[in-house]
Amino acid sequence: MKQALRLSILPLLIASGFFFNGCASILPGHDAVVVRAEQTISISTDAFDTFLKSEDQTHVTFCSVSPEGCRAAHSFAEFLKAKVPDHDPLGNPTEVRRAKQYLNSAIHLTEVYKENRTAENKRNLQTILATITAAVAEAQKYLVQFRALKGP
Amino acid sequence: MGIDAIIALIGSLIPVVNNVIGFINRTAESLRQNKEMTPEQFAALKAHIESIDEPDYWKTDAERAGG
């Protein structure tokens, strides 16, 4: 049973390992900061969407098996979905969901870095990527639990 | 738990497993491209993010309760 469970979560652990550690080298002529930023944004976009969709689909089942885990996963989903103050492209105040704000900020800071590759712009980009990475790690923690619900 | 409940449980989890497998496949595809995105790819990513919260499962409990 334990062996089967370990095997069932292996793909996710491998994926998360690639995500956090990177893998192959960057092609010549391409900026590693930009490549990693774009990969992080792309993967995180899917990770957030997959987590929210799976949490929605498994909510009832997960709560019957693990009420505490269910509450934690749902609380984190609500955190990602909550609307927070932001600004539209014209600078007008608006609201956007937190997960989307993370991704929009990373897109914006990637564009800023591409236009002007200074140390400060690099630092700003890496800061938002670290925030996103932490959020994705939390989402992946629950995705593993959703996956484990299926059993061997 | 009866056999019917177990079958229902497994049935309800199939879409979730598909989601996770799809996520892993997309992750692997992204990591295979160790180069910067083309402007078209980057624009497509931005457009995808722009519309990502359209599905109902992106709504909070309060939004769903409010219709």
General description of the model:
The complex is a heterodimer of chains A (152) and B (67). Residues 1-23 of chain A have low confidence and may be disordered. In chain A, helix 4 packs antiparallel against helix 5. In chain A, strands 1-2 form a two-stranded antiparallel ribbon. Helix content of chain A is 78%, strand content 7%. Chain A is mainly alpha-helical. Chain A has 5 helices and 2 strands. Chain B is an all-alpha fold. Chain B is flat, with a radius of gyration of 18 Å. Chain B has helices spanning 3-32, 39-50, 61-65. The chains are: A mainly alpha (152), B mainly alpha (67). Chains A and B meet through helix 1, helix 2, helix 4 and helix 5 of A and helix 1 and helix 2 of B.
Task: Give the helix/strand layout.
The complex is a heterodimer of chains A (152) and B (67).
Chain A lengths: L1 H20 L10 H34 L1 H15 L1 E5 L5 E5 H18 L3 H31 L3
Antiparallel strand pairs in A: 1-2
Chain B lengths: L2 H30 L6 H12 L10 H5 L2
